[in-house]
Specification:
Blueprint lengths: L1 H17 L12 E10 L2 E2 L8 E8 L2 E4 L1 E8 L2 E4 L3 E7 L2 E4 L3 E7 L2 E4 L3 E7 L2 E8 L3 E3 L2 E7 L3 E3 L2 E4 L3 E7 L2 E3 L2 E7 L2 E3 L2 E8 L2 E4 L1 E6 L2 E4 L3 E9 L3 E9 L3 E10 L8 E12 L4 E13 L5 E15 L3 E15 L12 E3 L4 E16 L1
Parallel strand pairs: 1-3, 3-5, 4-6, 5-7, 6-8, 7-9, 8-10, 9-11, 10-12, 11-13, 12-14, 13-15, 14-16, 15-17, 16-18, 17-19, 18-20, 19-21, 20-22, 21-23, 22-24
Antiparallel strand pairs: 1-2, 25-26, 25-33, 26-27, 27-28, 28-29, 29-30, 30-31, 31-33, 32-33
Length: 366
């Protein structure tokens, strides 16, 4: 599929910028040109033989065609290079290099490289490297490579068909096989992850010890369903998922204490397992949850939890421990679910307070 994408892009840009002119000069002797200046093929100093020239410096108003470039190539729309390119290539729309690229490629639209790239590719839309990208790839929309050895940064997605040994950083999604680190606004997908996986919603991997997202589907990790209750009598059913160390928390529930309001709960957070013994571990959690009747009553709480846990068999775990909590709600809602505070603000329109509490529950490990 990726090979077809490369070939389709090559055919498209060749057709646009060469107006259907075939490369009639392939059979001619190779020639080196110090300077290649022109408008668009074949209106240039290398004329109809441009495809057989290796140039040290090229400058074209619209598009330049060459066999190879060894220095600087600048075009208003496209640089079309049939073999290798080294140095600097700058194009308003596309740099299309059929074989290897070494150096820097800058394009307003796309850098498309038919083999390996060693250097930096920067594009307003995308960088497409058929095989190995040894340097950095920076794109406004997408980076696509066979494998990546350095950083990939994109506004939407980074995709490596094989390994990504540098950082993958994107606004929406990252995908690779064996990767070092992934940071995405929505999702990360990998086979084995050495470092962190940080996503706005979901991480997917075979092995990943340090996933940071609300939902983490890690084959070597742990998933569980828990039922918890805290000092305000808020009962929550939650889904915990993650790797060997870090995990995400997502839950819904109901407050059993407030008789004036029907308060429904939503909870989300992150946690970390610290193993103490074969059946004993410490769960450290940072959680935010809100209570609401979906009308005027809204109660917000941020909590830090230190939760010792004891595992019964292979599937069941019980836990209980202290928490420190910061709460915020409008005073006229009368949502004082806790009476004792170690600090509170009596001067603001909204009530703010810090109190100690607890969290206890039981969870079934899937």
């Amino acid at each position: 599929m990726k090979n077809l994408s490369f070939l389709a892009a090559k055919a498209l840009f060749t057709g646009i910028f060469l107006f259907g002119v075939s490369f009639v000069s392939f059979g001619q002797n190779d020639t080196t040109s110090v300077v290649h200046v022109g408008f668009i093929y074949p209106l240039s100093t290398n004329g109809k033989n441009a495809a057989s020239y290796t140039n040290r410096f090229s400058l074209h108003a619209i598009a330049g065609l060459s066999k190879s470039e060894t220095g600087v190539a600048i075009s208003g729309a496209a640089n079309l290079i049939n073999q290798d390119a080294s140095g600097l290539q700058v194009a308003g729309a596309v740099n299309l290099i059929s074989n290897n690229a070494k150096g820097i490629q800058i394009a307003g639209g796309a850098n498309i490289i038919g083999n390996n790239a060693d250097g930096i590719q920067m594009a307003g839309f995308g960088n497409i490297i058929k095989n190995e990208a040894k340097g950095a790839q920076i794109a406004g929309f997408m980076n696509l490579a066979g494998s990546s050895q350095s950083v990939q940064m994109a506004g939407f997605a980074n995709i490596s068909r094989n390994d990504a040994k540098g950082l993958q950083l994107s606004g929406f999604m990252n995908k690779g096989k064996n990767v070092n680190a992934q940071v995405a606004g929505f999702a990360n997908i990998a086979k084995n992850v050495k470092g962190i996986q940080l996503a706005g919603l979901v991480n997917i991997a075979d092995t990943s010890d340090y996933p940071i997202a609300i939902f983490n589907f890690i084959k070597s990790g742990e998933k569980s369903i828990a039922l918890t209750v805290d000092e305000s009598m808020t009962t929550i059913a939650s889904f915990r998922s993650g790797g060997r160390v870090l995990y995400g928390i997502a839950g819904v529930g109901y407050n059993l204490k407030d008789s004036k309001h029907d308060l429904y709960a939503v909870e989300a957070g992150l946690g970390a397992h610290i193993k103490l013994a074969d059946h004993v571990r410490l769960n450290l959690e940072a959680v935010s949850h809100s209570l609401s009747n979906f009308k005027k009553a809204h109660y917000f709480k941020n909590s830090l939890r230190i939760i010792p846990a004891y595992k019964i068999g292979s599937k069941l775990e019980i836990f209980a421990g202290p928490t420190i909590n910061y709460v915020n709600y409008k005073r006229d809602n009368d949502l004082d679910l806790v009476k004792k505070y170690i600090w509170k603000n009596d001067s603001s329109k909204d009530f703010q307070g810090v109190h100690l509490g607890f969290n206890t529950g039981i969870q079934f490990i899937l």
